[in-house]
Amino acid sequence: MINFIQQIIPKTFLSFLVFFSISLFSEEQSDADSFFGRDAPLYSAPDNLIGWIDSRTITNLNGEWSYIIDPMNNGLPESSFFGGFPKNKIQKTGMELIEYNFDTAEKMQIPGAWNATNEKLFFYRGPVWLYKKFEYLPKEDVLAHLYIEGSNFTTKVFINGSIVGEFKGGYVPFNFNISKFLKEGENILLVQTDNTLDKSSVPTQKTDWWPWGGIVGDVYIVETPKQFIRNAYLQLNPDNFSQALLQVQMNEKLLGHKVTLEIPELQFKDEFKTNSLGRIVETIKITPQLWSPSNPKLYEVIIASEDEKISDEIGFRSIKTQGQKIYLNNSEIQFKGIAMHSEPIGIPGPAFSKQHFQELLATAKDLNINFVRAAHYPYTRHLAKVADQMGLMLWEEVPVYWNIDWDNSETLNIAKNQITRLVQRDHNRASVVVWSVANETPLSLSRMEFLNTLLSEVRVNDTTRLTTAALLSGSEEQFKSLVIILALQGIKSNWVDSKEKVIFQSILEQANIPVDTELNFLISIDDPLGEIVDLISYNEYFGWYYVTFFTEQMRVSEGTLRKLMFEIMPSIKITSSYNKPIHISEFGAGAKYGNKTNKIWSEGYQAKLYEYQLEMLANNPQIQGISPWVLKDFRAMLRPLAGIQDFYNRKGLIDESGNQKEAFKVLADFYANEWKK
């Protein structure tokens, strides 16, 4: 019988049956995902980041890519018995069993997000494979690096069937030396991106923005000599405006390697040599015009080694705090700002191009701003370059958001990698004046240790900018005081009905507060992180979320409390025990464009909230910056309310198409006429 079977069944198939049987009945086989698979191969981490991308020799791989959805993660080499998608098997005779074909698969534009490309994938979270054929001619003594500006959130890279490496974290750029994988003529780049978020990821599972999946930034092959300038920084000395600090890092530890710095407009040119670490750290004497919102002056800077020449446009300025004030170029300044998300006007998906950011920032400038909070994650490098040219100061941050896994070492490493790459990429951008390491994170000891580590990482790479985190602060006792103030106002207001006055009276009696007590509510930002950051930043939502929080506790109508909150808002004082400037990093209210009802979600309600908020903030002397939430309505899975939100966060001053809501003019007039200059 066995002999008969061997005669009629090919040995390869017989071997498969044996493998299948062993796997099926083996006590050691416990992972269903690897049932037909192999041990997971090693995926290398990216190389240290290459800077000055825009002046290097590149092969642009943007444009049309094929893609295949892989919800069961079957395309990985370790997940399937057929070797996975990187083998890129093709039909030769028409008789091969191959269950995928990238050449006939659907197409999308890169940079781009599959959620915005295919409506079937609007809510999809999981792996998608992206495929690109390109021609390349390897060159002697030239290294080829694959540079990806951003890919969400876990990315595995393959070239010509070989594993290149993996990057976790999303949003920030990464690069691999791919010289050994390339061949003359046609090459195949295969990228698996997975926008799944879990407890260990950064951001974590729940976010208040859309988990755009795919390659969301430029894709280049960057060519360098074998010995090349990996990155270089040129920063004004904040203590001496006739000096600047030059830092150059070669890709190897090259002692005595010659590097020339030239700034033609300043008639500066000098030569330096690397130390044993392949670094240059030198102070140079220059007297540039200082960059500012009113004078966004940039200089061409050229750095040349023995084998290459790179260039950039760099502005020179200083930013610092002293006491409760902020100083730009030693002159006091207030951040007249707006927060925004990285979504273009009128186009679904994430913003990634220079044009996208030119349109967004031009709209923002119509508010008479000088400052933008780029929340809650890094955008592509084009944002800061456009801001440099337009004279807008920037806050940039990483997506350490809400309650991530503070005790997970992998989570910390992902966050460190994100902030390090962001700082290294935008170190030369004069517009970037604030690095933020977190947004709305609850207090805990492990959270403090986590964020302190990130702040230390920032300062290792850059000491010339302010550091911050957007805080949620205020103790239980403080908010009990706010309830008392609302009750006092309710007793005094002649429009409050008698039933609710009884409730307010009861609240005051229980607290032993006389009804003639003077209204006085002080909220002190007491987060211990305030001791180690430069700028105290606070997200507050008086008139929006806070009202909802109190309604159930006080057992009065939400409409009554909203009206009372407006009445007391001008008297609210915000301060901090830390002798540092305060920045109100968020406030706002949702409004559907065209809703003229003057109720919640209306343009009128949003505009009225802005009026009361701005009066309150203008009367708080420690507040030196404001960035209301938010410039434009943006996609958010947490916002399903049909007919109003429709999966948009509606706190924008313009809607997704660019239509201005009433509050837009309120803020623009405030910045132009009312707030301190």
Structure overview:
This protein has 677 residues and is α/β, with parallel strands linked by helices. Among the domains are: 53-91 and 98-224, Jelly Rolls; 229-306, Immunoglobulin-like, CATH 2.60.40; 475-524 and 540-579. The chain is built from 13 helices and 34 strands. The strands form 9 sheets. It has an 8-stranded parallel beta barrel with strand order 23-24-25-26-27-29-31-32. Strands 3-2-4-10-7-8 form a 6-stranded antiparallel β-sheet, with no helix packed on it. Strands 1-12-5-9 form a 4-stranded antiparallel β-sheet, with no helix packed on it. Strand 13 (229-237) and strand 14 (240-250) form a beta hairpin. The longest helix has 18 residues, at 409-426. The protein starts with a helix and ends with a helix.
Summarize the structure.
The chain is an alpha/beta fold. The chain has 13 helices and 34 strands. Helix 12 links the parallel strand 31 and strand 32.
